[in-house]
Amino acid sequence: MITGDELQSRIRAMQALLKEQQLDGALFIFPIDVYYFSATRQNGALWMPVEGTPTLLIRKSYERARRESPLSDIRPFPSSREFPGVIPETATRIGMTFDVVPVQQRDYYARLLAGREFVDISPFNRQLRSVKSPAELEMLRRSGTSLSAVFAEVPQFLVAGMREIDLAAEFECRLRKAGSEGYVRMRAFNQELFQGLAVSTGGPSFGFFDGAVTGRGLSNASPHGASLEVVERNTPILLDYTGVFQGYITDMTRIFVMGDLDEELKHAFDVSLSIQEMLRASLKPGAICEELFLQAAEMAAQAGLKDNFMGMPGEQARFVGHGVGLELDEFPVLAQGFKMALQQGQTVAIEPKFVFPEKGVIGIENTFAVTAEGGDKLTELPDNIVFM
Amino acid sequence: MITGDELQSRIRAMQALLKEQQLDGALFIFPIDVYYFSATRQNGALWMPVEGTPTLLIRKSYERARRESPLSDIRPFPSSREFPGVIPETATRIGMTFDVVPVQQRDYYARLLAGREFVDISPFNRQLRSVKSPAELEMLRRSGTSLSAVFAEVPQFLVAGMREIDLAAEFECRLRKAGSEGYVRMRAFNQELFQGLAVSTGGPSFGFFDGAVTGRGLSNASPHGASLEVVERNTPILLDYTGVFQGYITDMTRIFVMGDLDEELKHAFDVSLSIQEMLRASLKPGAICEELFLQAAEMAAQAGLKDNFMGMPGEQARFVGHGVGLELDEFPVLAQGFKMALQQGQTVAIEPKFVFPEKGVIGIENTFAVTAEGGDKLTELPDNIVFM
């Protein structure tokens, strides 16, 4: 799937960035960082010198890492005494991804490599990974296709009297049978997500999750997603789910209705489609993320939906799209304060949504690739509300 | 569920430990640490002075945190300028859980609170949480009962021709409908788990996971759990699943067989039952964790199964049980090197298992509470292999 050539080009790109930052190398220990550069998610660390061949050190499973990774230098994880021998003494400035590495881990390696300086490389690590190769785009496209197929089946199992959790369980069952890996990786501290949300009357809830819709969840310990509430007629039923295939995450949302919908909600849905279309057309290299968010917010305001846009009143999210890939919250973010320009090959989930505390939640979400012609939709399925 | 009195007693216990360590307080920012002391898993931080009332600072959702937490002092998260005002200047030594707090987060708070010393309190934080209150034991018992009920249904949906992933999907569907929250929290760096494992021929695999059985998984990115292999007749089908109810995790394993089993596997299963019974009888306050592991390993060796005990040859796990609660990998660990004595009210998943690379994986797992009379089984279901 991930060839040696592809890995070499990822490694060369990172090495160029390390050089720019005047670093002598980087020590990757976070599993998905190691995976990106080695093609194996076994437990270990990757030493990447600023020039030359990286060394993959594996705690468990060495057997499996050797089978999976095309890297040439793979070794069993050394003892603490031998560890410093792996990293040349000339390497005095070493990069690490401090956004995800716990203090205990950093301190452990700082003791092993006493006298070296550790430097945070999180921002440019995320920046690098945000741009997908053709092979990654192909995996994301397949992920989107598989996820879309499960969405297409919803009318076969959505029935009156179900609780949100029953709907979630039926959706997740089909998603897993389609091969979704279930475990959705998020990078941001303090965020966590199960596979997605199935929410109706429980949808308009306050919550910790950085998103427009949080859902009530099953308890105060897991206050997110489906609840025990029964899905009701004439109320939007929102399914916001991720598919995880070969590690690559796509994200989409569709609305289902048993019966009919209030005009205000139908109007809001149409606005979400217009915003999506504006953003899709703008998903070109060079577009500034923040500007796209501000344009979307302006369209919501023009439509009289400022207070409903992207969340519960007082807790509205300040973004309308987020990068996806090996993690659900990759760069770029179409958000206030995010002034980066889009690049060819980035993949973004666009999700204009509206929350009406008394009426429900509504909106659309698809995953797109950034191209010179605008967003290329990876989650091919009609966008319409499915009335049943 | 979690009363104000219960929180007060948790807080007093932590404050006593902070005092012992000559700390002026602790700043909890990891979500499950905040939840344990506040009863709300919203996004924020908990300042706990060594004496007096803690302050809960909430980023999102303040609304929901106020509804859920019985704490008296709950405030919206302050600006960086106001933050130092929340923590008295006299607090110069501040505890933090460095096992899970990323470097970036620690550095952020260290800048806000310049001049203060931050000290790792991970070990005694884990130690404190390992002992469950009567209310927690009741929640764990309910978690075990709900999980057991799903295991009891397996013969209704396990059929020939299924792939491991189909079996996983059907099990998970019922588990979710029973109210399991799905998201299984693990504390250890570099570990991650979906809801559990459904493995048969794919069972005897190498893998990163710290456990006896890892499974092949669906890809190199998610190399754990069910695979696309079809479950076979006359081969053990192992289901190892967690239930997560009100945040509290129980863990159990049962074996199902379509047809009959090889005598060596039946023998190994009987040995796993004997080991479980020895450990159950020993789960009393004062028993030393390491000794229990060594006794279990000795029983396996006496039975001629040393090389099969707890993992693939060369990658055998050095534990036979682990604490469970809000996280799957709590203290205590029945492991080599873990010299702590058991305490009344700890809860431990005991899982003696054997791996035969050519034949399959077999064993048992139940969750027990430590009592003066030995382990009290929280996952009530017969232990036998279910032949179909």
UniProtKB/TrEMBL annotation, chains A, B:
Residues 139-372 form the Peptidase M24 domain. It holds the Pfam family Creatinase_N. InterPro entries: Creatin/AminoP/Spt16_N, Creatinase/aminopeptidase-like, Creatinase_N, Pept_M24, Peptidase_M24B. Residues 10-131 form the Creatinase N-terminal domain. This is Peptidase M24.
